[in-house]
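Researcher: Predict the fold of Peroxidase.
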Amino acid sequence: MDRMSSLFACLVVILCLVSSAKAQLKPYYYENICPKALSTIQKIVYEAVSQEPRMGASLLRLHFHDCFVNGCDASVLLDDTPTFTGEKNAAPNQNSLRGFEVVDRIKDALNSECKDNVVSCADILAVAARDSVVALGGPKYKVLLGRRDSLTASQAAANNSIPAPTFNFTRLLSNFKSHGLSLRDLVVLSGGHTLGFSRCTNFRSRLYNETSTLETSLAASLKSNCPINGGDNNLSPLDPASPLSFDSDYFEGLIQKKGLLHSDQELFKGDGSGADGLVKYYSSNPVAFWHDFGSSMEKMGKLGPLTGTQGEIRINCRKIN
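Model: Structure tokens for Peroxidase follow.
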């Protein structure tokens, strides 16, 4: 066999393996293994969001930050060890990611309910993200299940793989495409910013240097909470209209120049370029946004899953067995 034939054969094998891994994910994976697994996750998520509505956005973000770093494998939950530096203290996550205690509660409850360690931490993140969206008024989209958990984590990969709030449109789209996601996925998944808050340090530069693309009254309000110096951890809503409700107001905000982060406002320039058309479409079609958000979340949830005998199912989501 010549060199080109060998390379082609290897590529076919790799594609088959990837396809096989994705095919093993299915929505009813736990139906016989642990029939009450999903209802157990839902109960704890609803309780957590009821006690602190902001937690819904935090759990959604955990899933996103997990999937964008070497796939949806719960690597984001691992604490540092002597053999690797994990993702929790990577630049996009440090002093920012939260919800770990809720995941711990879910895992403990599942191990008790299922009478065994059968539900992966990666699947917990995927289901908790969906249930958080539902708890805050959003769509109950399908979640494919059957992932297993990674045996390691990488701070460097987190630093390199998660799109930054300073990214322009070109870098955002390039980042998403590198994960096999489209322009529509970029816009729809960014719509998750209809929920939650961001720290002053993430939007200070935009606030004081991008006055032409930031609505005047919003800018004045933000400056009272985010001074030029200090207050790095002060929070402001990503969607000033309704940060605790899953709706399409985020897109209307972009049209009104109310995107909090530079990366948010980059999705709408107002000149018909880039993502302008999609932002306008979703701002006036909330039902379409709900539908497409579910589709894009399902697509993101299939990024690099570990299945079969790959990885493990962690007993404690913070450390390997």
